[in-house]
Amino acid sequence: MNNDEAAARGARVPKDSGVAVAPPRPNRIEPVPLTTLVARADARLVADPAAVPSAEDVVVTGASLRAQQVLPGDLFAGLPGARAHGADFAAEAVAAGAVAVLTDADGASRPAVRDAGVPVLVHDDPRDVLGAVAAWIYGEPSLELSVLGVTGTSGKTTTAYLIESGLRAAGHHTGLVGTVETRIGSERLTSAFTTPEAPDLQALFAVMVEQGVTHVAMEVSSHALALGRVNGTRFTVGAFTNLSQDHLDFHRDMEEYFAAKSLLFDGRSTHEVVVVDTAWGQALVTPRTVTVATGPGTDASWLATDVALTPTGEQQFVLHAPDGRSAKTTLPLPGEFNVANATLAAAVLDTVGVALPDIVTGLATVEVPGRMERVYLGQSFTAVVDYAHKPAAVTQALQALRARTEGHIITVLGCGGDRDTAKRPMMGEAAARGSDLLIVTDDNPRSEDPAAIREAMLAGARAVGPAQGGEVVEIGDRRAAITAAVERAGPGDVVLVAGKGHESGQEVAGVVHPFSDVDELQAAIRHRLEESA
Questions:
Q1: CA-closest candidate to residue 123, choices 114, 133, 115, 111
Q2: What's the predicted TM-score (pTM) here?
Q3: Which end of the chain, N or C, is less surrounded by CB atoms within 10 Å?
Q4: Are 187 and 212 in contact (CB under 8 A)?
């Protein structure tokens, strides 16, 4: 591989540049014979016997399911999709250097594949086998890493950061894969998905191995499990946080949603660690499960007790480990749910040999972007940005903030478009019940009418009624809504801007506009301070 090609494989694209981010590729790749992939994937090879080179002479050095990101030597995966079949882009992929195509029978019959002039691997379910194929191409990198996967509805991001913080405290060279960002050591990459597509994930793991990473904390979404993105990955630990309503635009019901989450515990994880505070977690327990609990009277391997809020807003609790070990622990994140996340992280860290003092240090020093992130410029009220975008997460965030203030809580919240519509009134209801003032605004309306999304939220919020909830107003413009919340806040109050967290853009009608809740909240507070000076 020449230097230009190596640079392309490891290229970085600045976040929010408007350019599709090309995933990193390892610089050193051992070519894999195509015939080896055919045999291991149990695929059917379709090739022109007169072609030069012949299928027996083709070697593969990478994989991609996006034609625009194909590099010379790649296997292109043309997968069936909801709107189009990836096989229709085979000509573009071959022009970029793809040496073979993996697809299904329908894809193999399409002109772009038939006329591609490269060998075609046909499999009944190419998406299911793609992860393993990509892993073989990149040398099965997850076998050289301790991959610590976290699934669940809420808490994946926070738990992954807590795990990574504990690993760093113990001196390990770490990687992080999740919603907010991907990190290789201290290098930050943009995250397109909570869990990358299978070829991108295996390439990323290979890059981490090249750069000396030993442990990876990773969020594992239900989409990734259901769509096979983590197939081919060996997890040292699989961890489960909780389950509540979300993604029912993708899953038919809660049972199917849970079944997708449960795939992390189908044998692909060497060790399993589960929060058993709910029936969903309890359903995952086997004789080898490491259990975690924060509720009273629960029998579990790891427990958190004596939770107390400090005057500075931190939480302190006693962490109880197996074999009678315990430690007084400080957590800079509010909310009982974060105590559960921290206890889960501690159990995962212990499972991979991190000492209890290093675990305690990691929990105390964690920083999680956009998760209960405080914005302070000297104002007399508390201002917080949080990613809560599910009914249960909104309730938990508001309960955590209520415990920290005797003042009023002002919440700014919207719902995303093109996502689970059933949760919109539930979001409005949860926010109205926990707030003294709820400002319903826009989130990422995407292709939907923003007013219709707000109306669904308002229906749930207004159903609460003044006896059980606070004042509810509607301000569609999110910047104006944040400004209004800051203007209404008095000394000792709390302003919560929820739903987008770490995000740095707002998608409206297919266009992503620069927008940061943290930046907008800072600007509104700064303006108010200047006006009152």
A1: 133
A2: 0.80
A3: C
A4: no
Instruction: Measure the CA–CA gap between 241 and 281, rounded to whole angstroms.
Output: 8
**Ranges in the chain annotated CATH 3.90.190.20:** 373-532
Cβ atoms 116, 89 nearer than 8 A: no
For 112-159, the pLDDT digits (tens) are 999 999 999 999 999 999 999 999 999 999 999 999 999 998 889 999
Query: Between the ranges 9-18, 309-318, 395-404, where is the mean pLDDT highest?
Result: 395-404
Closest CA to 464 of 517, 501, 500, 411: 411
User: Class of 373-532 per CATH?
Assistant: alpha beta
Distance, in Å, from the CA atom of 130 to the CA atom of 104, rounded to the nearest integer, reads 12
Nearest by Cα to 26 from 12, 41, 6, 45? 6
Give 176's strand partners.
Answer: 183, 217
**Residue 528 near residue 465 (C-beta atoms within 8 A):** no
Q: Which residue blocks in 296-390 are alpha helix, DSSP H? A: 336-351, 356-364
d(CA 391, CA 389): 7
**Cα–Cα dist 148/155, whole Å:** 14
Residues with Cβ within 8 Å of 261's Cβ and at least 6 positions away in sequence, in order, are 151, 152, 222, 225, 240, 243
Please say whether the beta carbons of 486 and 521 come within 8 A.
Answer: yes
Q: Which residues of 183-216 are buried (b: 16+ CB within 10 A; e: fewer)?
A: bbeeeebbbebbbbbbbbbbbbbbbbbeeebbbb
* Residue located via tokens 């508390």: 382
CATH 3.40.1390.10 residue ranges of the chain are: 30-137
Q: At the top level of CATH, which class does the domain 30-137 belong to?
A: alpha beta
CATH 3.40.1190.10 residue ranges for the chain:
141-364
pLDDT, tens digit (0-9, with 9 covering 90-100), for 156-189: 999 999 999 999 999 999 999 988 889 999 898 8
Give the domain 141-364 fold: UDP-N-acetylmuramoyl-L-alanine:D-glutamate ligase (3.40.1190)
pLDDT of the residue at 255: 86
Tell me which residue has tokens 């040999």: 353
